[in-house]
Structures are given as C-alpha cells and as structure tokens.
Amino acid sequence: MLDRHSVLAIPTESYFVPQLWDRHGEHPARDAFLDDVGRLARIREWGVTPEAVAERLPAEPTFAQAIGAVYRAYADLLGKPRYGDKTPSYMQRLEVLERAFPGALYVHLVRDGRDAALSFLAMKRRPRFNWARPRGLLSFAAQWRRELAAARRFGARLGDGRYLELRYEDLVGDPERELRAVCGFLGLEFEPALLDYHRDVDPASLLDHPKLAEPPGAGRSDWRAQLDAARQESFEAVAGPLLDAYRYERRFPSPSAGARVRAAAERAALAARIASWDASLALVRRSPAWRLRQIYIRRSG
C-alpha cells in the first residue's frame, strides 16, 4: 500500500541488513562493503548496482550511511525522495534497524497471532532454511509472543512520535481510515492510489503472498473455523498476554495446567534455538563461507 505513494519507495523484503551489520559493523570499509553489495542477489533484483551505491557513499561511511546509500539508489531509480523497508524477519534484530536507519519512523502492523500462524503455515513456498523458524502452531505462538513483546519495548523507547501500532484487522476493515492515520504519522498526504495496490503487484511477491493480488481482506484466515479447541487453547496458553494487549478475543482465558506447561517448554525451546541460530549466523557471516554462498547463489540463480 505505502509503496504506491508518489514520494515513498518500499522494495521487496530485503533480508540483507543484519548480514551486512554482522560483516561490517559500525564503520564499514568502503571497498569491502561495495564488494558485498555486488554479491547480494536481492540488491541486484532491485536494479541497484555497486556503482550506483558508490556514487552515494562517503569515503569513510558509517553503517547508516552505507545502508542508506543502497536504499537511496533504489528510491532514485523510481524518482521518489523517501524510502522504507518491510522485512518481517527484522523483528528479530530491532537493534540493528536503529543502527541502519537512525531516526526512522516505524509502523508496526499487528495481526491476530492465530490467523497469522495459519497464513504462515499455509505458505506455498517455504522461506530460506532457518532452524529457529517456527515448525508448527505452538512454535509460531512462542515466536509471535516474543517478537511482539520486543517490538512493544522498542516502541516504548522510541516514543509515540516514531512508533505507530495498528491492527491488521482494522486496516483491512477500513483501509482508507487506517491509511490516512499512517500517512499522517509519516508526514505524507493521503493518496487514493494506496488503496489500489492489488491491481499492480510485483510477480515475485505473489510467489509467497498470492493474496496480494486481491482487495484488502479477501479470503482471510479464520482461526475460529480452522483451529480446533485444543489448538486454540495451546496457542492462548503461549501467547495469551499479547492477545489481551491487542484486544483480541480469547476462548481460553485460563488455560489448563497441561497447556501452560507445554507453553513454557515451547517458549524455552524457542529461546534456545534462536540463541544457537544467532551465534551460528554471526560466525558464518564473518567467515569466507558467506562470500562463497553468495557466489553460488549468483551462479545458480
């Protein structure tokens, strides 16, 4: 929706910001950074070249200046003065976003975790391998709770002037009203084109999200009809406090002892998997293996 605005460019999900942070830190060496930019398939898909980034990059850039040069090059291709990013996995690396985009405004779109789980688990094309990624409903509930709680803490530190929460259900229920509020928060004039996003969707986005080609709210998941009572109770045992915080209906305000025990175990298991995954990723991204993987992707892509 926001990418349809005449002054705002928001590309497809990027994924690379934490990778570049892990590899380069706060003060990247200019040539090494540009070399990595040339290896990343997603940046090439945007039509951005290392040469275009170099034109916008100082001799001794900060991390924010280096990342900004990539996005500035993309926005300039579209003739737009402002840019944004919409990569849900960055919920796990919010501290990196503040380093990459200091002073940025954040719009946090929240969806009922039970419907979000059904949508995620039904995806036709699975995201890239990640052993910390949810493998089932209970695992998703633990991650939904963890990420939303972290986002709320993050937003509290930023303050209302930089962080806006809205519910997915409200957005698809009355898109114009909610988009007007978002535009006001971002300092943009509302444009009717934002409501027509589904008429011209990037084909690459449709591989994972086919419903983008439909009007808001069409064919939405419905946890009430698609989850049996046992799975509803399990999800609420894990994520009940966040469901309450966002005013979502609960069928089991007081889950059984067994459900609470399973919920605690799943949350602990998720925390352990994420810690292990993050440590492994940091090592891989700083090693020659990262560059070899990018070369392989380039040749096989």
CATH architecture of the largest domain: 3-Layer(aba) Sandwich
Strand content: under 5%
Uncertain runs are: none
Cα-atom Rg, whole angstroms?
A: 20 Å
Spatial order of the strands forming the largest sheet: 1-2
Estimate the helix proportion, in percent: 55-70%
Description:
This protein has 301 residues and is mainly alpha-helical. The protein has 2 domains: 103 residues, no CATH class; 181 residues, Rossmann fold (3-Layer(aba) Sandwich). It is built from 15 helices and 4 strands. A two-stranded parallel ribbon has the order 1-2. A two-stranded parallel sheet has the order 3-4. It is globular.
Quick summary of this structure?
The chain is mostly helical and 301 residues long. The chain is built from 15 helices and four strands. The chain folds into two domains: 1-103, no CATH class; 105-285, Rossmann fold (3-Layer(aba) Sandwich), CATH 3.40.50.300.
